[in-house]
Amino acid sequence: MSFLEQLLAGFATALHWPGIVVMIAGVAWGIIGGAIPGISGAVAMALALPYTFSLDAATALVMLAGVWAGANYGGSIPAILIRIPGTPAAAAALLDGYELNKQGLASKALGISLVCGTIGGLISIIVLIAMVVPLGNLVLAFASPETFMLALFGLTLIAGLTERSFLKGLAAGFFGLLLTTVGLDTLTGSLRFTFGRSELLSGMDIVSVMVGLFAVSEMFYQIAHPAGRAPEVEGKASTAFPTLAELRSVSRATVVGTIVGIIVGIMPGAGATASSFVAYNEAKRWSKRPDLFGKGSLEGVAAPETANNAVQGGDLVPTLALGIPGSNSAAIMLAALILHGIVPGPFLMSRHTDLVFTLFAGLIMVNLLMIPVGVVILRGCMAILKLSPPVLVGAILAIVVIGTYAGDLFILNPLLALGFGIIGYGMRVYGFSAAATVLGMVLGGLVESELRRSLLISLGSWSIFVTRPISAVLLVMTVGVLLYPAVMYARTRRRQVQTARTA
Amino acid sequence: MEGRTGKVDDGARRELAVAAFLVAFGGVVVALARRIPPGVYTDPLGPAAFPIALGAGIAICGLLLGAAMLTFRGHSGFKSTLAEPGPDDDQTTGSGPFSPARLIGAIAATAVYLVGFTPLGYLVVTPPYVLAIMVIHGGAGRRSLLVGPLLVTAALYATFRYGLLIPIPDGILEVVLR
Question: CA–CA separation, A160 vs A478, rounded Å?
């Protein structure tokens, strides 16, 4: 099948019943979730994960893509209306969005956010499609040693870049890998860390772990660290679409936001928050009216919102081409694959081409659906923002319990979610972000199986990882990433000593 | 840990405690993994090697973290390269001071809720659970406390039972609801 035929087939699958309904539901939940301060895109996706059980893998992925895209826009709603970013990434849009609200232009700011975000999202998906297909062909030369080294490199890179401390990042990544060893070892039939519980034979329920680490820990954090009284949401809000002249006036900011979002998205560990702030600063630098930034500039809303949405396509490049998720949201997408019995990895593109093309089509669809759903759902978001935070926290915890229970009707799963909620809370308080653990859990099965398969091929000789050129290069890169923090520290110290000597 | 002023640094002490926990946890993992039976067919690595390596890796991270804290703490270049925390992409900000009572209360309420979830049923245990969480969270008005738990329970029940067709446990109300 040609590329175009595959894409058309992807559209046909994505739009097949109940695909379109699931997409709308995903985008709607994403916008609502993103609009609720305290629920980031990853939390909204984790909460949606249990409800993908009954869907096929492609529809599940498309739904989660909808939640992800929706949350990117949803975060800007409270940022513009009540000066509280719904997601951390929406903080940059707050700077000018709330100023526009004070000038009575909230509807216009919401319209710019929605339209420019959609443009950024769509362009990033086109870039994604253009990059993933050739990259997917490149990894066809990979055998077990290369796949193992690639997964190890990805994990090290992400642990080093996303984590707040490199050593804690590595420890959290190892912990994630360790979680995947629980259950029956398929190669030898040995039981590992099951402690006599038959429910653990098939391993830890990845949904319960993710929901616990992201959603439950977040709710516990909000309860244990109560914020001050939230500002009241008053009046009504609507979306005013930008005119052609207004779109032309923000075109430069939109281009800057798109480029920044895609580049930052491709880099593992750098997320939507970084992209929106970088885009804001770059748009200000390139603007004809930089003096208006911070005082209610439409460009100041357009740039971060475009970047925020363009991150999705960039983020999915390493996820789909190499099997290395660059963010929590991408890791949750891969977790949905594991739920449906598909092993994520560099061969996703070649072995599940139809699935990947359905996701491409679904990503285009959800970005297009953002505009109608975003307009319609705004009133619902306002109503939810008017609810008091305690009601929302109680409701979310109840949703977590039902959602994790619904998978296989085991009460052990909500208990796991509670346990990992406590662990996630502790990790957050002591400076371990859950991201590396989740990424370790997603990559764990692949890392161990490919390592053992490599050693089977080499009859137990570890030289297989250095005698094969690609594997050796990946090994050198992994060691480089491991040594990077120490090298950086040594350089900083040397500079400090030199400065002290000259002074 | 001695700082430049000679006083014990609370942050450093906390990091050392974290390092000690990692070493202990890694050690426990290694000890448990060593007990994994080899199984009926053993590949060159065996089923225990990977978990042992991971346990050792966690312990080594703890050792390096502790050593780095003790050796380099006073050096300014240490920050953000080896052990000090920085910002995260998915975490909310702007929270208030820590309240251990609230945290313990929320965990206990959730544990009790899970214990009663299947035998008593969703409709029986959810309203008091949501109410408990609202009270523990604080800041809810009297009207919210009265209406909130009932509305949340009813809305979620309708959504999951009739919308998503998820068999939520009815518990002691099974006879009535059937």
Answer: 11
Which structure tokens are listed for A260?
């920044």
Of B61, B99, B164, the CB nearest to A226: B99
ipTM: 0.86
Q: Please state, in angstroms and rounded to a whole number, the distance separating the CA atoms of residues A147 and A345.
A: 8
The chain-wide mean pLDDT, for chain B, equals 82
Q: Reply yes or no on whether the pLDDT at A271 is more than 80.
A: no
How far apart CA A62 and CA A27 sit, in angstroms, is 10
Q: What is the pLDDT of residue B8?
A: 52
Which of B50, B115, B142, B160 would you mutate first to test chain A, the one with the most A CBs within 10 A? B50
Q: Pick the residue of B54, B65, B143 with the most A CBs within 10 A to test the interface with A by mutation.
A: B54
User: Rounded to the nearest 5 degrees, what angle is found at the Cα of B96, between the Cα atoms of A276 and A79?
Assistant: 30
Note whether A60 and A339 are within 8 A (CB). yes
Q: Which whole-number Å values give the CA distances from A151 to A144, A378, B53, in the listed order?
A: 11, 41, 16
Which amino acid does the sequence have at B91? Q
Does this model's pTM top 0.90?
no
> Please, what is the average pLDDT of chain A?
87
DSSP secondary structure code for residue A168 in this structure: H
- Per-residue pLDDT band for A174 (boundaries 50, 70, 90) equals very high
What residue spans of A16-105 are helical by DSSP H? 19-35, 41-48, 57-74, 76-82, 91-102
Query: In the prediction, which pLDDT does A114 show?
Result: 94
